[in-house]
């Protein structure tokens, strides 16, 4: 029997999970500060695993709401996700993720919004039961419970602004940044729930086992995000 000489295999690169669009775009300068350039543009390529200028670091492209899942199960060592997404994930998987750094990117607010002709304050005062449509069911449930407002929550996956316009709901809980989307649909924000920005999340086992790779990236991200505050 012949024995084959074993070729040394390179270790799995450190894997960072990102979503396409604003999080990817706003993460590029942070990566640069850690000496990492992404080899491909996910808007142009159909590839979901992107190499970088560092052979020991790769990026995977996933849906924004899937980033915590990839990191929790260790399929990615790190990820970047909005607080909105992290609040929803934590409701089902409390404490699953280490969230060391608020990166101060993708900033917006989670708000309650209604049609202009809906008197939200009066409805709340009268103890009315409100129908609220949202993608953020846990954050919405917590918010209305803390105010003692009864709500029927209707789960949607997008285009929340449509719901009050066609009678699906009295109010929505959605993200607001410039306010242009609300304005374009004749809606108004009636209450702020929480400020939103994106955080670095880290797999708990990877933090221990791959500390020497992860820590310098964490430090560079923290320095860069503080510099832009
Ligand atoms: P998908 O399109 O896959 O359903 P998504 O709409 O949540 O996901 P993005 O729009 O890229 O994906 O949002 C990613 C994150 O960016 C959100 O979780 C939120 O934290 C933040 N975000 C969303 N909308 C805005 C906005 N208008 N301004 C600033 N940040 C935003
Ligand atoms: C987000 C969010 C709001 C909008 C708010 O949508 O869901 O609809 O931004 O931003 P504004 O206050 O600046 O208008 P996004 O642009 O991510 O589109 P999407 O529906 O594809 O998620
Ligand atoms: Mg969006």
Automatic annotation (TrEMBL):
Looking up InterPro entries in the UniProt record yields: ATP_PRibTrfase_cat, ATP_PRibTrfase_CS, ATP_PRibTrfase_HisG, ATP_PRibTrfase_HisG_short
Q: CDD domains from the xrefs?
A: PBP2_HisGs
Q: Is ATP-binding there in the keyword field?
A: yes
- One Gene Ontology CC term in the entry: cytoplasm
Annotated GO molecular function terms are: ATP binding; ATP phosphoribosyltransferase activity
One Pfam family for this entry, by name? Answer: HisG
Which segments constitute the ATP phosphoribosyltransferase catalytic domain?
A: 63-222
PROSITE patterns from the UniProt entry = ATP_P_PHORIBOSYLTR
Q: Which UniProt keywords apply?
A: Amino-acid biosynthesis, ATP-binding, Cytoplasm, Glycosyltransferase, Histidine biosynthesis, Nucleotide-binding, Transferase
- Protein location: Cytoplasm
One GO biological process term is: L-histidine biosynthetic process
Q: In which pathway does it act?
A: Amino-acid biosynthesis; L-histidine biosynthesis; L-histidine from 5-phospho-alpha-D-ribose 1-diphosphate: step 1/9
Report the EC number(s), separated by commas if there are several. Answer: 2.4.2.17
**Catalysed reaction, written as an equation:** 1-(5-phospho-beta-D-ribosyl)-ATP + diphosphate = 5-phospho-alpha-D-ribose 1-diphosphate + ATP
Name the principal localization, coarsely classed: cytoplasm
Quaternary data: Heteromultimer composed of HisG and HisZ subunits.
Q: Which family does it belong to?
A: Belongs to the ATP phosphoribosyltransferase family. Short subfamily.
In the record's own words, the domains note is: Lacks the C-terminal regulatory region which is replaced by HisZ.
State its role: Catalyzes the condensation of ATP and 5-phosphoribose 1-diphosphate to form N'-(5'-phosphoribosyl)-ATP (PR-ATP). Has a crucial role in the pathway because the rate of histidine biosynthesis seems to be controlled primarily by regulation of HisG enzymatic activity.
Q: What is this protein called?
A: ATP phosphoribosyltransferase
What species is given as this protein's source? Orrella marina
Q: Source organism lineage?
A: Bacteria, Pseudomonadati, Pseudomonadota, Betaproteobacteria, Burkholderiales
